[in-house]
Every structure is written in C-alpha cells, then in structure tokens.
Amino acid sequence: MKLWGGRFTKETNQLVHNFNESISFDQKFYKQDIAGSIAHVTMLAKQGILSEEDRDAIISGLNSIRQDLDSGALAITTESEDIHSFVEAELIARIGEAGKRLHTGRSRNDQVALDMRLYVRDEIDELDHLLKDLLKELLSLMEEHLHTYMPGFTHLQKAQPVTLAHHLGAYYEMFRRDKSRLQDVRKRMNYCPLGSGALAGTTYPLDRNYTAELLGFDGPTLNSMDSVSDRDYVIELLSALSMISMHLGRFSEEIIIWNSNEYQFVEMDDSYSTGSSIMPQKKNPDIAELIRGKSGRVYGALISMLTVMKGIPLAYDKDLQEDKELTFDAIDTVKGCLLLFTGMISTMTFRKEIMEESAKKGFTNATDAADYLVNHGVPFRDAHGIIGQLVLLCIEKKKSLDELTLEEYHSVSPVFQEDIYEAISLKTCVEKRVTIGAPGADAMKEVIAVYKKELEE
After folding, report:
1. How far apart are the first and last CA of the chain?
2. Catalytic (active site) residue 155
3. What is the dihedral of CA 49, 30, 25, 211, to 10 degrees?
4. What is the DSSP letter of 271?
5. Helix/strand/coil (H, E, C) string of 415-443?
6. Of the residues 20, 61, 141, 379, which has the fewest C-beta atoms closer than 10 A?
C-alpha cells in the first residue's frame, strides 16, 4: 500500500521502489510508530475530530499489530514503502473503515520526525544505562587499586608514578562527560514535532501540547518547517557517540599495549581473547582491537550525516531518509562496544608487581628526587641537572634511583642524606600528592565519594 497513489496513473518502477523504500530499515521503530499513532488518535478524539468509537477501534487494532509484531506472528514485508504505510495498511485490513481515519491531521513528514525522536530518545536511555554500568565497573576497580603503583606516561615515556586507580579515573572522567553529553542531547531534543503536518501545520484544531504530554515530551516544537526538517539532534547524538567511541578506542589501545609481552601489565581473560591459526602461543586482544577499530565506523556516520544535511533547503527533502541507517548502525555499534568493553575490563587481571617495578625502573621518581634537593636549599635548575647526572649513573650501572647507594648519591651531590630513600619511594611520591584530582589515596577517596553520590542520584 502507498499513501499517495491517487495522483499517479503508473505503477512505480521496481528499481525506483527499491531505491526509494525505507521499510527495510525503518521497521526498526515500529514500536515508536505505533505509540505515536495511539497518542495522535487519543488527541483527535479529545478534540472531537475523531469519534470515541473510532479511537477505541484504532487503538485496539494498533495494540494487536504491536503484539503480533513483538511475538513474530506478523512479519513486516517490503512491499510497503515504509513502516508507516505498513502499519496503516495492516490496521485497515484489521478494523476496516475506521483505520482510514488514523492519518487525519498528520503527514508522513511529522510522523517520521516523531518516530525518529522517540527512537533516539529510547536509545539514549539505553546508552545511558550501559555507560552507567561501565562507570560502576571502573569505580569498583578504582577502589580496589588505590595503592597499585604504576608509571604515568607522557609521550609514551615513563614520567611520574601514579596509581592504577588514578589512571582509571582519567577514563572515568571521559565516560562521565559522555554520559552528561547524552543527557544534554536528550534534553534539547525532547520536543514533539507531531502536528506540524507536511511543513505548514494543519487546519484541524489539534492540541499539540496534549500530544506532547502523552508522549513524554517537554512540549511541542515551535516551528512546523523546522520540525519536519530538523536532524540536529541526530548529528548531536552521532557526535556524542563518536566521542564515546574515541574514549573506548584510547582505553582499548592502552589495554592492547599493557597486554603486550613487553609490558605485561594485564592479562586478558580467555573469554575475551582469541588465538592464532598458526602460532599456538598467541593470545590476542581481538575484542579491544575491534572496539578500537569500530570508532572509524561511528565517525563515518557523523561525517555522512553532516554531509547529507549541509545543502538541504527547507523544508522536508527525501535526503533526510539517509539519517536512519547511519544512526541505527552507529547506535548498535556503540552499544555493543560498551557492553563488551565493560565485560572485558571486569575480567582482566592486573599484574600489580610488574606495574610497580616498571615505575621504579622508569625513573618516575626523578622529579621527586629533584624536589628533595630543592627542599634542602638547592635551586631547582641545579637540582634538575644533578638528578639528570644521577639518571645517567643509573643507566650506566643498570640500577634504579632506589637501588643507588648513598655513596653513589654523594658522588654527584653531597646534599643527599639517608632520608632520600624514603623521599623517592613510590608510596611517598604518590601519597604526598593530596590536592584534589591528584593520585594520592586521600584525594582519590574524596573523588570516589563524589562519583558514588552521582551514580546513586
């Protein structure tokens, strides 16, 4: 069934139909389409545009269609142009003449705009839940590893000692911002376009505020032309999803590095690893690699949608149909990545001793050794040079700063005393950093308390 056949004398060419149809992908939001139609006819009856008898028949028919689609008793066919046509045709087949009144005061333009908003809103809620699960897992790991020392890096070079809790906390902040971004998108898009018609509203006395209320929106959209042609919220969502993918990619890259033979900071669980078809010793971090790679797919959807929208004149144009496949795929991709990533990090084993030894061997306490000299009256620039000489001595003798004898310290500067060893221990280096946001355990506990409160709210 087509909703527009009266004007035409020829059937649509099959290739044209195949190119034009959207039911192969927009069937994904049949639930939203039916929910929107139920709200629409409820409003029509309230306004006296539709009889209560017709309203009840339509709602009953729509509910039966949804139940049959949910159970699989009814299959969606591609003969219809889109999900709207399919549902309406099935409704008419089930309840007869009353079904033909469903579309009163409505266009497919505002109908699809509504369906897309409802679908995106539902998916944002699911994504929010998945992000919350990831944040909970990160928080649990942070609490467990407040005293797990490891090197912090800049330029992929060992820089200063931190804790695993602090390192994971950096990613917590990223995903925390992602969660906030999704909520921003949801809040900004939560206005109902239904009642905008094709582009210029309708002469029927619709109560758009009531429809918006029924569907959980904050109110109706305020310009009918923008209502049917706006896809800003889709672009904003794709941007937020791209950020999530980027953060997952960064984290995955570190896990891949940490899992390597050279680092051995982590061991991947067998359930999240794969082997080699030729090399029996291999245990590959394929899930982390795939998550890292999927970011390109999500970025592609964002760039594609921006390109689609860049030259579209007001109001509705068929180009807008391109929003669905791109958005559906990006949402499904990120949801899958979040689910798998959370499972992967929850099953990883962190090798604390290797991480701590790596921090010691990488001279990550060199800055603290320089601070020690400064606290003993040596100008910082001179202290910097003295510690540089000590590092060269360590490299020559294949020792860490902790392993040098006091005699060896004195060979470079007489300022050093026995307390240098306490001053440059990893525990001291980390725990004396107590400003908010630093890796010291007291500062971290304060931050963790903030995170816990947020998650509870």
Report:
1. 48
2. yes
3. 40
4. G
5. CCCCCHHHHCCHHHHHHCCCCCCCCCHHH
6. 379
Determine the average pLDDT of the residues in 238-250: 98
Question: Taking a C-beta distance cutoff of 8 angstroms, is the pair 241, 334 a contact?
Answer: yes
Digit-coded pLDDT (tens) for 309-355: 999 999 999 999 999 999 999 999 999 999 999 999 999 999 999 99
Question: Residues 90, 74: contact at Cβ < 8 Å?
Answer: yes
Asked whether the beta carbons of 110 and 215 are under 8 A apart, the reply is no
The DSSP output letter for 270 is G
Active site residue 103: no
Give the pLDDT confidence score for residue 12 in this predicted structure: 59
Alpha-carbon distance of 36 to 171, in angstroms, equals 38
How far apart CA 313 and CA 225 sit, in angstroms, is 11
Q: Which two tokens stand for residue 162?
A: 């931190």
Return the bridge partners of 220, or none: 192
Segment 59-72 mean pLDDT: 98
Cα–Cα distance, 345 to 259 (Å, whole number): 12
pLDDT of residue 346: 96
The residue type at 129: H
pLDDT band at 77 (very low <50, low <70, confident <90, very high): confident
Report the alpha-carbon distance of residue 45 to residue 210 in Å, rounded.
Answer: 12
Ramachandran angles phi, psi of 231, nearest 5°:
-130, 20
Instruction: Return the pLDDT at 245.
Output: 98
Task: Give 274's DSSP letter.
Answer: B
Nearest-angstrom CA–CA distance, 140 and 197: 50
Place of tokens 């017709």: 54
Residue tagged active-site, from 129, 260, 276, 410:
276
Percent helix, strand, coil in the chain, to 5, is 65, 5, 30
Length of the chain: 457
- Written as six digits, the tokens of 185 are 């998108």
In this prediction, residues 374-394 reach a mean pLDDT of 95
Global pTM value: 0.91
* Stretch 401-427: mean pLDDT: 94
Res. 6: pLDDT tops 90: no
Query: What DSSP character marks residue 192?
Result: B
Q: Cα–Cα–Cα angle for 45, 62, 116, nearest 5°?
A: 90
Q: Which residue in the list 71, 155, 271, 277 is annotated as catalytic?
A: 155
